[in-house]
């Protein structure tokens, strides 16, 4: 039972009657555990719906100065724009929000999902930000390869779609697949060294990822996000361009403390909102993270930590007369 309450979390609805301090509704658990000292009776009783306003959060409802780290956790907690009025309880350890024994077991064993993989060097490396972000995702095993998607419950089949010989793990997709090896060989790479730390960071990458024009009459939205590992602070940004590649609009957002998957979704939501406000009718959306594209297409994501932003994204997507969502490499 203790494990169950530890692993479940409330998804806040518009008419929430959860308590700000005592209900488990943020990614860090009940906020009461994060603050010290006594609370006044009124503060103790404060409900989320009193604290929630259209533009976000009414900080004046908190009768004391809230520590910045708590503010950042609250800020990054998604609240549905439209739909759901009621609070929903979700199992926060699985992507679909459904209870599963495996993640419960890990939780009971004190297994930390964010392993202590040392990957701060990535941010200091002299590389294009996009490549840093890719490496960071690799380091956290969160690239949308089959094995990873299966772990998140998105797919069941884990075999490599190219060779069909082995499970498509990250290493298989990047190094071990027989077809991938051929590519490396053609590029003149004889051995690939895999380690938590790079041996040397001497090569500068000069290759730019190509941006392709959308068809005539279409606009294109590109979004991406990043999370600073040491602090967990996440941000997202996006840019809208026309068929000539000319800048139309862009945005950036400091999300607060959240995971990379959520950060990508925040970016998508902001981007769709921007394009909708610009009255764009035909839109191509290009996303970095394949897992997000899969999640958008997977109707099973109904009741979990990301479903609120997913729902908003899906709703916003209906505002365009023509919409295409692509995964770009
Ligand atoms: Zn393969």
TrEMBL record:
What is the organism of origin for this protein?
Lithocarpus litseifolius
InterPro entries membership: RNase_H-like, RNase_H-like_dom_plant, RNaseH-like_sf, RNaseH_domain, RNaseH_sf, RVT-Znf
Annotated signal peptide: none
Q: Where is the Reverse transcriptase zinc-binding domain?
A: 99-184
Q: Which top-level group of life is the source organism from?
A: Eukaryota
Q: Name one GO molecular function term.
A: nucleic acid binding
Q: Which residues form the RNase H type-1 domain?
A: 222-328
Q: What is this protein's record name?
A: RNase H type-1 domain-containing protein
């Amino acid at each position: 039972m203790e494990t169950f309450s530890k692993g479940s979390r409330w998804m806040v609805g518009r008419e929430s009657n959860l308590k700000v301090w005592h209900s488990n509704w943020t990614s860090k658990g009940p906020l009461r555990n994060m603050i010290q000292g006594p609370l006044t009776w009124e503060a103790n009783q404060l409900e989320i719906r009193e604290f929630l306003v259209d533009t976000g959060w009414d900080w004046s409802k908190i009768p004391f100065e809230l520590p910045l780290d708590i503010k950042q956790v609250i800020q990054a907690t998604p609240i549905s724009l439209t739909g759901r009025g009621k609070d929903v309880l979700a199992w926060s350890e699985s992507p679909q929000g459904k209870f599963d024994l495996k993640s419960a077991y890990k939780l009971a064993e004190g297994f930390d999902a964010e392993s202590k993989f040392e990957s701060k060097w990535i941010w200091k490396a002299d590389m294009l930000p996009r490549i840093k972000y890719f490496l960071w995702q690799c380091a956290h095993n969160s690239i949308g390869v089959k094995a990873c998607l299966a772990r998140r419950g998105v797919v069941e089949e884990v075999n490599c779609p190219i060779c069909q010989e082995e499970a498509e793990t990250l290493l298989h997709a990047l190094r071990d697949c027989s077809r991938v090896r051929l590519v490396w060989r053609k590029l003149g790479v004889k051995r690939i060294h895999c380690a938590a730390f790079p041996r040397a960071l001497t090569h500068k990458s000069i290759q730019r990822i190509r941006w392709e024009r959308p068809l005539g009459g279409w606009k294109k939205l590109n979004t991406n996000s990043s999370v600073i590992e040491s602090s967990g602070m996440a941000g997202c940004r996006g840019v809208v361009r026309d068929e000539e590649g000319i800048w139309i609009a862009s945005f950036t957002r400091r999300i607060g403390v959240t995971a990379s998957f959520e950060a990508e979704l925040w970016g998508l939501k902001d981007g769709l909102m921007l394009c909708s406000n610009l009255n764009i009718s035909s839109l191509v959306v290009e996303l970095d993270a394949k897992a997000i594209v899969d999640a958008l297409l997977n109707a099973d994501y109904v009741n979990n930590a990301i479903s609120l932003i997913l729902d908003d994204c899906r709703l916003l997507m209906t505002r365009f007369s023509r919409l295409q969502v692509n995964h770009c490499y």
